[in-house]
Amino acid sequence: MKILVTAKRVIDYNVKIRVKADQSGVETANVKMAINPFDEIAIEEAVRLKEKGIATEVIVVSMGTDAVQETLRTALALGADRAIQVQTEQELQPLAVAKLLSALVAQEMPRLVIMGKQAIDDDCNQTGQMLAGLLQWPQGTFASQLVIEGERLQVTREIDGGLATIALKLPAVITTDLRLNQPRYASLPNIMKAKQKPLAIITPAQLGVDIAPAWATLKVTSPLTRKIGVKLNSAEELVAKLNDLGVLP
Ligand code: AMP
User: How far apart are CA 140 and CA 167, in angstroms?
Assistant: First the structure.
């Protein structure tokens, strides 16, 4: 069974995000980038399925400028067998990504697609669901456990206040939650080996997909900063202060 996994290049979660002066988006120049953390979990799960002999090949896909090749090489070092870059300079929204993935699924014929539940840059949490809709495949979203037995899958899903376990049939789309696994680190020998693994490049036009955006971003702003508070020493001081502010009846 082939597994397709996705790896989005996002700003590293440790970086303090800065909004661009013209409010058109966030600053990405000279900022540390990384694989979307939920996608690292997707790669780890796919690689473990290969190690268990359930998967035969793990193909990793990333979409964007040539910078995503670095992301793909990291995924290859983590254990994916080959990589595909969908090359574009254009901003990709979830529906465009889902359509591109759907076209790749038609070419590669995987039985399972594993993706992150959301990208930590746009927090859309839409792409996996849209892909399952386009393919008319069942979906197990927010997976915290995945059990595969033949053509059947059991997915434990993280839902409000508990867990839900659902049964699906392959082919299927899975999106990962944080507790699915603990991703490994890439070892130096595997980073070296990853340089030799195949990385194919394809364009949206070659896949016959229109990637025109479905919405326009009007502006992006930073959260409001809280006014600095005052430290008081006693309840009396607090009452006096509230009286001064005129908030007591
Ligand atoms: P989103 O719906 O934007 O929150 O993204 C959900 C998931 O879709 C991510 O965790 C990725 O696995 C995948 N995805 C979204 N955009 C891309 C991209 N440009 N390249 C590869 N995967 C992507």
Answer: 9
